[in-house]
Amino acid sequence: xxxxxxxxxxxxxxxxxxxxxxxxxxxxxxxxxxxxxxxxxxxxxxxxxxxxxxxxxxxxxxxxxxxxxxxxxxxxxxxxxxxxxxxxxxxxxxxxxxxxxxxxxxxxxxxxxxxxxxxxxxxxxxxxxxxxxxxxxxxxxxxxxxxxxxxxxxxxxxxxxxxxxxxxxxxxxxxxxxxxxxxxxxxxxxxxxxxxxxxxxxxxxxxxxxxxxxxxxxxxxxxxxxxxxxxxxxxxxxxxxxxxxxxxxxxxxxxxxxxxxxxxxxxxxxxxxxxxxxxxxxxxxxxxxxxxxxxxxxxxxxxxxxxxxxxxxxxxxxxxxxxxxxxxxxxxxxxxxxxxxxxxxxxxxxxxxxxxxxxxxxxxxxxxxxxxxxxxxxxxxxxxxxxxxxxxxxxxxxxxxxxxxxxxxxxxxxxxxxxxxxxxxxxxxxxxxxxxxxxxxxxxxxxxxxxxxxxxxx
Length: 458
Ligand SMILES: Cc1ncc(COP(=O)(O)O)c(C=O)c1O
Description:
Layout: H1 8-15, H2 23-29, E1 34-38, E2 41-44, E3 49-52, H3 55-58, H4 67-79, H5 92-104, E4 109-115, H6 118-135, E5 143-147, H7 156-161, E6 178-181, H8 186-189, H9 196-214, E7 219-224, H10 240-250, E8 254-258, H11 272-276, E9 282-285, E10 297-302, H12 303-316, H13 329-344, H14 347-364, E11 371-377, E12 380-385, H15 401-411, E13 414-415, E14 417-419, E15 422-425, H16 433-451
Parallel strand pairs: 3-13, 5-6, 5-7, 7-8, 8-9
Antiparallel strand pairs: 1-2, 2-3, 4-10, 9-10, 11-12, 12-15, 14-15
Helix pairs in contact: 4-13, 5-13, 6-12, 9-10, 14-16, 15-16
């Protein structure tokens, strides 16, 4: 990289630490700078436009130029730019948003606790679960189960639940008392000749064995994303969640559904709880809650959790938890407007109309020589990159083939994300049929380019 010392790239390298980046490589590669957005497109600092096939981080559901969200933020900024919810204080946007969320949420969830990120939502869910078990006189029931390839965030506790090596290695995580059940990817983990039904039974038996080994009386909760996103877009096999929920219920283990990616339409229903028949005790949402225009997340809890919170705060004298920005009025106003837009524009109906086209183009790529599996649901999907379709063997990691595909597709004008051996696709929910064509045409060209060997060395 030859850049002037006052260039954007040089200033970035001199000053910024980038999340989820090879920090050493960044010193020479420099940043990919995005300057503006419009609809499903973003534009870099050279004026080149890209279709944002990842909606940022699975999150910018309404694209990058929704004027109503901007207006909602400006209105609230002018009226009351900041207040808080501590010590009985309140304000309309937080109340309105909580009411709206509860009106949309799966049955049984009856109160809302706001936070600012998906990680914080999961983190505070853990605290509520511990609080709950102390309140009901079961203080020994505190262990937590996440899953291999699960992603729940990066705070100390939520990163512990996350089941990805990069989030643990040399961070001295996971913390004690956190365990990881199997990842339910039939493609990756089925044994030779094993049917999907037998695979689900094995997943269930392994979960049951983990619970028995640790002691059911010591296990508080099981956290799961309906579709594992950052783990590679792992769609659950048929019947998996029925079996899991039956086991959790039998052992009185709380079920926490992490809808941070799937919430607000992604899978073709407002919540993936509906898509997969999930009955959560707690549910976490973020990302599309505000279309990602401002940070906000929420933990929704059932009456039984809330009753325990009442009892504990009566005993202790307060509920000793909350962030300066819990339910921030500007974030809440933007989120409320996002939910209103979802309803008025029937975003779920739009996802249902686009999904067959999206999934058909995705699945057609399973025939590509580099692709072992195409998987997805609604407007989320992934392609598994393989060296050998029959054995499912992946390329030597040092070759960086998924990253080369990501680079090639970006050159073709579409932003996608390489995750392990997969290429993930998760566009804004407002994507049109014409944009789906543009996205998959670019992906096809990028795959062909890499196959032709032009970019295997990238
Ligand atoms: C399912 C899931 N949970 C939690 C998180 C963490 O959210 P945040 O990055 O806002 O802390 C993410 C982020 O991608 C996620 O995908």
